[in-house]
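Deviation from plan, reported transparently: flavin-adenine dinucleotide complex.
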Amino acid sequence: MSATAIMDRLPAVRGKLLFDVPLNPYTWLRVGGAAEVLFMPTDEADLSLFLAACPKEIAVFPMGAASNLLVRDGGIRGVVVRLGPAFGKVTIEGNHIRAGAAALDKSVAKAAAKAGLAGLEFYAGIPGTIGGALRMNAGCYDAETKDRLREIVAIDRLGRRVVKSVDEIGFSYRHSDAPEDWIFVEALFEGTPDDRTKIQARMDEITARREASQPIRDKTGGSTFANPDGHKSWQLIDAAGGRGRQVGGAQMSEQHCNFMINTGHASAADFEALGEGIRDDVRKQSGIDLRWEIKRVGEPQ
Ligand SMILES: Cc1cc2nc3c(=O)[nH]c(=O)nc-3n(C[C@H](O)[C@H](O)[C@H](O)COP(=O)(O)OP(=O)(O)OC[C@H]3O[C@@H](n4cnc5c(N)ncnc54)[C@H](O)[C@@H]3O)c2cc1C
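Because the crystal trials were delayed, the predicted structure below was used instead.
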């Protein structure tokens, strides 16, 4: 659709509506084409009104820190929603932590630690936002989002505010059953009172472990494939000869071979070809079908 054609069909908003916005600077892998439209709502009411009035045949895709996304080279049709500062607040309510969906996981870990609330230390090691953590049930080192989550608030595709307890949504390993068209706007977590110094020490340990084992300073998307039951993806990839393999500018990291990195000028097509080649070889070598953990979105070029 041309910019004017789609623009004419979208409702007036108080936030920013931008057209044909390259997404590669936003994504951790630094690849991807443009969003047909990028919407940055001013607040929850702006988002609700937009979703209620946006024609239902126009696709709407929420994007967080894009640390788990492979945006294809042809870009994303429809509207990409990025939540701004109004959605990034973190507040302490007794033993609970209320976090906006745009808050970085790290900020939530820090706020909980400062308040002497334990249980969210693992967020110190995850570079995404709370919205992405809810969608992915993000976690590490035997802890995951659902463990400390008590409630979520989302806006559905009709613009309605939905509040659900954690038990009403199915969470499993790196997955949430919440409807795909919900945009999370808030989460409520519960911490356990503990000594601040001990909490900080556990966060420091997680950060140090990450620095030693993962290429976190590279352009990467984190774990490429979810661990199959009873297996580690990196071991399967290593056994299939995938460590360090390269397609164009995309490479399986030498340091952590389940991480893909952009060595400079990779395209999204390079990453997808590399990942699919690895899946084929792992299947041949071990009979196991790897599932992409990175979400691949948008259109090929
Ligand atoms: C160096 C590195 C290390 C990582 N380590 C880990 C790890 O240890 N454990 C782990 O689980 N992950 C890890 N990841 C992956 C990634 O950080 C997580 O999946 C994270 O939760 C994604 O959050 P995000 O905000 O970047 O989401 P995005 O990548 O932007 O999006 C991911 C998914 O969430 C959806 N989404 C985002 N915001 C919202 C919202 N507000 N409402 C509804 N849906 C939304 C998107 O539509 C998409 O489907 C790592 C990534 C990197 C780059």
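The radius of gyration is 20 Å. We consider this an acceptable substitute for the interim report.
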